[in-house]
Write a structure and sequence with these properties.
Blueprint: E1 2-5, H1 12-21, E2 26-29, E3 40-43, H2 49-59, H3 61-69, E4 75-78, H4 80-84, E5 86-89, E6 95-96, E7 101-107, E8 120-125, E9 127-128, E10 145-150, E11 152-156, E12 162-168, E13 171-179, E14 182-185, H5 193-204
Parallel strand pairs: 1-2, 1-3, 3-4, 4-14, 5-7
Antiparallel strand pairs: 5-6, 7-11, 8-10, 9-12, 12-13, 13-14
Length: about 210
Amino acid sequence: MIAVIDYGMSNMYSVIKALQALNVKCDLVNTPEAMNDYDKVILPGVGAFGNGMKALKESGLFEAIRNFATTGRPLLGICLGMQFMFDGSEEHGWNDGLGLISGKVVSINFGREKVKKVPHIAWRKLYPFGTWRNTILRKCNGDDEFYFLHSYMVIPENREEILATVAYGETEIIAFVRRDNIYGSQPHIEKSRESGLKVLMEFANM
């Protein structure tokens, strides 16, 4: 049973719809206490990092998610939800994140003179980084394409936690990460058709 976190500003209904298409049992959860009843948690997200973190903290879900991560049960962040997993974001000034994965969130144009068009909106094929064996990407291949829509990207401190990247011009964008039981997907896998459904199904089957 999967809990999809509802904190008032996410693509939660698209995630629910995708899971239902796979016949995966799932519920929307908006209270800290309810999270303990689930085997897995998905944290979706769209919008500004700071606003999202404020909503998580005010609802009590911030600490509940951090506590869930320590149980070893699978946790998946999608798009902004993936960015929440990191130490913090430079979007509109520094905002602390959940601190589950070491690293930070920066503008796609971070440290570059040539300004790229943002947001980054595209279908991209993945470049594997490390092994996909026993991960949510294990059924994917070089033909799979994923839908991206974002202006900020993650920079993990430990590159061994990267599962896949994509290229935006000369910029390397981290597409998927993993740290133990914690996964992150920068693309909207719930909107990535068959490719995204494969990933969600692997997460559900963990």
